[in-house]
Amino acid sequence: MRTILGYLRPHAPRVAVGVTVKFTAAVLELLLPLLLAHIIDDCVPARDLPAVWRAGGLMLLMAFGAAFCNITANRMAAWVSMDMTRQLRRDLYQRTLLLSQAQLDRFSVSSIVSRLTNDTYNVHQMFDKIQRGGIRAPMLVLGGLALTFFQAPPLALVQLGVCSATFFSIWLVTRRGIPRYTRAQEAVDTVVRILRENAAGVRVIKALVCQERERERFAAASRASKEAEEAAGCVMAAANPLSDFLLNLGLVLVVLAGALLVDRGRMASGQIVAFLSYFTLIQTATLGLAKLFVKFSKGVASGRRIEEVLLAPEDQQVRAPGEAPGPELGMENVSFSYLGVEKDLDGASFFLNKGETLGILGPTGSGKTTLVSLLLRLYDADSGVVWAGGRDVSALSREDLRGRFGAVFQNEALLNDSVYENISFLRGLSREDVTAAARTAQAWEFIEALPEGLDARLDIRGANLSGGQRQRLLIARALAARPGILILDSADSALDYRTAAALHAAIRRDFPGVTLVVISERAASLRDADRILVLEDGAITAQGTHGELLETCGRYRRMAELQMGGLT
Ligand code: ADP
Known about the structure:
Helix 7 (153-200) packs antiparallel against helix 9 (211-236), helix 7 runs antiparallel to helix 10 (239-263) and helix 20 (546-552) crosses helix 21 (554-564). The chain is elongated and about 115 Å long. It has helices spanning 2-6, 12-43, 49-98, 101-107, 109-133, 136-151, 153-200, 202-207, 211-236, 239-263, 269-310, 368-375, 398-404, 419-424, 431-440, 444-449, 467-480, 497-510, 523-526, 546-552, 554-564; strands spanning 329-336, 345-352, 357-361, 383-388, 391-392, 405-408, 485-489, 515-519, 531-536, 539-544. It contains 21 helices and ten strands. The strands form two sheets. The protein has a six-stranded mixed β-sheet with strand order 6-7-8-3-9-10, sandwiched between helices. It is of the alpha/beta class. The structure holds adenosine-5'-diphosphate. Residues 105, 338-339, 344, 362, 364-370 line the site of adenosine-5'-diphosphate.
């Protein structure tokens, strides 16, 4: 928690002022019952009305003072906790942007999202509540008990007993209830996820006539959510009645014990009223304290989860560059495994000159995306060397490496913004560059036909475009910064043969120096590549030009014949 606590340091003066103000409010609140007892025991029996007015006026003044101090301190606490959470969330977000792909896989994207939202919220709540109640509640409990003890020890013991029972019972109930609420929240998340999946895949569901199965899946998730909510509600249902019962029990016990003391002449009757006030103060503060403890333990757990990300070590160091320049793009005996169990890429070697085209062909799961991810250094190879732009990728800085590549992956995100912003993608590119990239990507024709052209707004995830239009926008985005190496991972899967061919020709025409890596299921898209890799189970089983592979690789020949018929 040391890192998280560090976020509080710049606000220390404000926190100190807030705590002092809270302290003053608590002292005022503790003095009120004493004045009340004074009015009942001294002023009323003496029929001294002016003294009643004086003491009453002072009580009012103190009550106003306490309220003013509490409001001021609460506002300061809210400001401090909001500001520190904002900074914490900003740093956490920036750190997540720098996490390597392997670290992102390890944490999982949904966990990162919940750390950025739920966990920062819990830390915010913890600091807010500690500043508000961390001083006030213990002071009211201890101060109230001390003042009672000073005047009537038996009554203080009664209060101490009831308050301890309240603290532990509420603490236990809440502690048991919170994990159940967390489970209930997770169950709701599942329901939302199914709804989102169904909304996104509604066409597939209808086409494959899966409605019945989906209905059952939704009903099961909905049932689980209801049961989890019931379990949580069942436990928490005890909290308020229990604290009300203990409050009433305490009030009765204070009155009974007080009456006995008055009867024996050891206490004035007005003091009973003061003790009842103390008891209510102490009891409310005890409840607050029990809840504070729960918020604290949640906040600490969340703080640790945030720190895990903030303190994650940089796992992709940039090595000193070697002397000899390497090929423009390539691999030398590269092996890699995601989970360290079996090799997902096994001894891959290939080389490519600047301006050449590499085609990658292989069935799903054969390692095509893995190979490209290693070229981009999204992951580090377990062994071997990966070359990009003539340099070992592990000797290139992150910016240098990313600056050399443009890449289009499947299912990439489009922003709910203008066409221009989707292509420029926060890089502030000129409209000329964006237009040129759109032309090469075969996207200009449909962009021009949109009512506002480049300024037309896309729906969330580009829902108002066809699959092929979305893909062409993504290709334009990758081209717009004029990369040295362009990776197209199944980027033409939603394009018809003619558009795909026009796209490849346009890239070669408009970007003659670009080194191209094309992953495609279509042999026709790879036909003109200078080198084609055939991948199977993580290994390059054959490589060469289209002509060479037709002669040497039976698998390639069969596929080419199947897809292109007489075109081979
Ligand atoms: P392709 O692109 O040819 O369809 P991939 O390169 O995506 O294949 O996957 C190759 C193998 O690596 C598959 O067995 C796949 O299950 C595995 N794999 C891919 N990504 C991950 C990951 N993030 N974690 C663990 N295994 C992965």
